[in-house]
Amino acid sequence: MRVVIAEDSVLLAEGLKLILDTRGHEVVEVAEDAISFAEAVERHTPDLAIVDVRLPPNFRDEGIHAALRARDRHEGLPVLVLSQYVEQDYAGELLSDGRGGVGYLLKDRIGRVGEFVDALDKVAGGGTVMDPAVVQQLLTRRPRDPLESLTTREGEVLTLMAEGLDNTEIAEQIVVTVNAVHKHIGNIFTKLGLSHSDSGHRRVHAVLAFLRGRHHVGG
After folding, report:
1. Integer Cα distance of 43 and 47 in angstroms
2. Side-chain half-sphere of 67: how many Cα atoms within 13 Å?
3. Which residues are bridge partners to 2 per DSSP?
4. What pTM value is reported for the model?
5. Smallest Cα–Cα separation from 27: which of 52, 42, 47, 10?
6. Which parts of the chain register pLDDT below 50?
7. Which of 19, 37, 42, 70 could pair covalently with 6 via S-S, beta carbons 3.0-4.6 A apart?
8. In Å, how far from its chain's centre is CA 152?
């Protein structure tokens, strides 16, 4: 897998590069700002981009918007965004196009190398991965909304979907059969108004509904 990294911290960038190199992936370029990142993506057309939310010169939201522009220009480009803190708006914005191949992780997660690499693989494969800390904050701060129609088990399954787990992994986590997980997910889709015509993206739409607290996503 060929990867472009956008990260202004030399130490963190080198750490990411080392992790990827030892797993057989190739970091084709490390960019220190949004403009250099865009140019690197144009040069290399990577299989995956890893982008810090905050980049020079203002260290606000340059990274997230550079990632979104890259996905618009190179449709299907998997992007994993890294953040120092939980910023829910950025997580929702990243998922707003309803496509897969996106991830939002806190930088602390990098230290858990196995989990981090698993997340990279899921995003590169078109999956959606949310940091558990983001999911937990959303659960504790969520106002009343139609998602409350979900049962406790369905809410648990949706939380694990947001963390990027597939049906088999969810079944192992909550100790039920894969068939039971499939039924729970079907109920979630129905309650969120996600039509069968959206079957290829319903997991993404369900996670987006989870993030935004909306009853219907993506139509």
Report:
1. 12
2. 33
3. 26
4. 0.68
5. 47
6. 143, 197-200, 214-219
7. 37
8. 23
